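Pilot study result, target chain (529 residues):
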Amino acid sequence: MKASQQRTAARHGRDRKTAARRGRDRKADVIMPAPGRDRFTGDAPSTAVIGGGIAGLAAATALAERGVRVTLYEHEAMLGGRVAGRRTRLADGSEVTMSRGFHAFFRQYYNLRGLLRRTDPDLSALTPLPDYPLRHSSGLTDSFARVPRTPPWSALGFLALSPTFGWRDLAAMNPRAALALLDVRVPEVYERYDGVSAVDLLRGIRFPEAAHHLAFEVFSRSFFADPGELSAAELLVMFHIYFLGSSEGLLFDVPREPFPQALWEPLGRYLEQLGVDVRTGTPVLAVRPVAGGGLAVDSGRATDRYQGVVLALDSTGLRQVVGASGELGSARWRQDIAGLRTAPPFLVSRLWLDRPVRAERAGFLGTSGYDGLDNVSVLDRWEGEAARWAERTGGSVVELHAYAVDENAEPKDVQERLVARLHEIYPETRDARVVGARHEWRADCPLFPVDGYGRRPSVPTPHPRVMVAGDLVRTGLPVALMERAATSGFMAANALLAAWGVRGHVLWTVPRTGRSWALRALAALVPRE
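Predicted structure:
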């Protein structure tokens, strides 16, 4: 073996050991980058990363760490994308942060957590929540605190502990259809199940009605979508990531402080230290190839030329930029981008109340059957800013979420209905005075409809130096939500680096096939339909 090959093998061995320390699941898949030199040492290419959300931050970080000259464009005044936050002042004079709402940082989010480790090696900005209770209006409540984390014991433990899903329900299920849950393989799952809706899949499995809220509220509605429209393949991938394919479990961490202060402001400073030109408040209008090579990026203020571009935008932003970039890519690719859809509107209501909720209330409660209310968070249980406000005033900070809201609904009616359901769930809030309220209405999350997978963009595009990143992207890996955004951002950077002969970054995911040999063996015993 040549000396250079020995060095590469040794480096890859170190990378694998580093990856293995990042999570508890030893069966997590490690994805090694293409070999190449460590970084640019001379004249490095320039790259525009368009979008300052998680995908764009991951791409900019990965490129800049290898010496690429990066310009990061973000149309908002702050970084973070759909996990950003802004300062606001309450009627009592308190300055607080309003964000797009609660986000769970699961232990399976290996690449997102790796991104955050750039500025917080021990992830001290995150703190675990002790449980993830799910409450149905019937009075049944499921908990994951005592459920084992490793398959198949996770499934067996859940059956033993759950009041909504028992052994009789298991016996009544359709074993052939249930194979979809036991032996998920990515990306093959999309070939078999993308043409089926999440609702039809669970009906075919004979999933018990009492447990439907587990599938829909925990998994389907995490995509902000009506489960009747959601691809069953996406639902199966979610089951695999969080429950049957990983030993990391369903418990998660949350930031100790609001998103900007805890996560994105430190990462923005890190990028600037790497030499990244961070341009917030700068939307990009179009991207076009130029004669002689390169790509022109038009921000309205100026047109700059780059050797590479990463489009790290949400569905609407990607449609707009590609629609205005008539020479970019192929006609079919642009047509597919134009056809991207967004999920229905969702609401985040945050209430600053003049009295506390009861001490035993969970920091996060998933809800079902409460007239559109999907979850309730008590932020002062974990977020420092909210806790300090509550301690100073004797109050509490409560957040309510409603996903997949009817587009024709009157916003004020929905807001009032959520508060009424809060009073039903936590009766001590009925007499509380609202010191301040902020309502965030958004409709910018990607929709993953039945039969839509093949038309979603992949990271590579028809142009060899243009990549796409974001939670809407096809990665071929078992990742979703924030982790799909981070992973695709790293993948976009790795693809550009490989084309320039520079080694990319190690990535890893939960296993791409059913993690448990026992469950795979069980699946093999029953013939497929």
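One observation from the pilot: Residues 481-499 form the longest helix (19 residues). A full batch analysis is planned for the follow-on phase.
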